[in-house]
Amino acid sequence: FFGCQPNLLQSRHLVERQQRAPQRAGTVVKQGSCAELFFGVNGSRNNILVQIPCKKQTLVFSDQKQAMDGTADRYAFVAEWYDPQSTLTRKYNLLFYPADHAVEMIDIKSRRPFLKRTKMESVRLEDLFIGSSVNIYARLLTIVGFGDELTRKLLGSKRTQCVAILTGPAVPAVGDILLDLLRDFSLANARMVSLTRRDADELFGDRQLYSDGSFRSQAVASGPTIALELLGENGINMLAQASEALSRRYGEASVIASSSAAQAANEARFFFSSRVPATFVGSGTTLGIVKPHAVAEGNTGRILAAIADGGFEIVGLQLFRLDRASAEDFLEVYREVVPEYVHMVTEFTAGACLVMELAGKTGDTHGAFRAYTGPSDPEIARHIRPNTLRAKFGTDKVKNAVHCTDLAEDASLEVEYFFQLMQ
């Protein structure tokens, strides 16, 4: 029975109230002189147990086989959501089924199903990692842990956190650098900051000296710095190799990589908190946003490189994950103007978006970038403005790759919204 040779096979069916986290069908929950095998449905308060007395032979069930294969038909996470009405933080078991991009949610406190298994194309496995946010029906959930040991085994080593710090000549080349890095990594966070020498000294500590005698803190404090939080298998070693190659291209002081997991965690806390202010110009600039679908499609690096090729300088940059309230607030000007408003809000909350403050070479940065972005309908753009961003990267009027400010008088307000109010 299941590869086991029991000296006595006695099966008894036990119906009991579920007092522990929901178990999967085919999961061994106790081993020794007998094994308890769960049958049932996730989230059910009644499960059927079969106890199988057996010898020392090992039972191999579906979870163990999937762990050996390196894949799973379901991944489990612990997620939190702040309820603004009750001012409570609620916790859920968030289950993701990669076969059909479906999600399921179970309230941890009540142990009741909160959301039945529902197909959700906007949720991808690579977006689910500790510290990330995912939007499920207008709830912006934060992943705070793994929900079971199988998920921890399969994803823990594949999602190593590391941080790349871009300085000097590497900053304007961030698009090209992302093109290189995102072949092996996924982008978890990004932020452009301006550090003082004191900030940089605190960050690097005794890791100051370069081979040519210059100091890391001096290079970092000499201009804007971009921090990229990356996730990848064997991430620390992979990023070290990548940073060496990039440093040969852009200069020794231009790309700095985390040398350990502890250092990466410390750098992430340093750069992605309010203690270090984001860069902000606010005058003579305009706003550009790489929309969630374009980020998910892997076009972030290409779009940023194209923006640089168009003669625009990125003077502010940050990755945001918007909840519905923030998206509606930002897009309020379109509410009674465009019929796609509701779909626009949905798109802005579908995943991470990369927000940029842009400066141009001409006096009319807003007008120049709006022209370079192209018509809102990518199909029309491909016919009349084929070299524009939306013509190259857009899909339809909602998923048109890049947001730009429509009215010149709104440019500074939109920049301020993200780089001042949302900080």
- Overall body shape: globular
Query: Approximately how much beta-strand content do the residues carry?
Result: 25-35%
Provide mean pLDDT, rounded: 84
Any idea what the radius of gyration is?
25 Å
- For the report, how would you describe the main beta sheet? 6 strands, antiparallel
If strands are numbered along the chain, what order do they take across the biggest sheet? 8-7-6-5-10-9
Judged by helices, strands and strand pairing, the structural class is alpha+beta
**Number of helices, where a helix is a run of at least 4 consecutive DSSP H or I residues:** 15
| Cα end-to-end separation | 59 Å
Helix content: 25-40%
Uncertain segments are 1-51, 54-61
- Please count the beta strands (DSSP E, at least 2 residues each): 18
Description:
The protein has helices at residues 62-69, 149-156, 174-181, 197-204, 216-220, 235-250, 261-271, 292-296, 300-309, 324-330, 341-348, 365-373, 378-384, 389-393, 411-421; strands spanning 13-17, 28-30, 34-39, 46-53, 75-83, 88-97, 102-107, 112-119, 133-136, 139-146, 160-166, 186-193, 225-232, 255-257, 286-290, 313-321, 352-359, 402-404. The protein is α+β, with helices and mostly antiparallel strands and 423 residues long. The strands form four sheets. The protein has a six-stranded antiparallel beta sheet with strand order 8-7-6-5-10-9. The longest helix is centred in the middle third of the chain and has 16 residues, at 235-250. Residues 1-51 and 54-61 have low confidence and may be disordered.
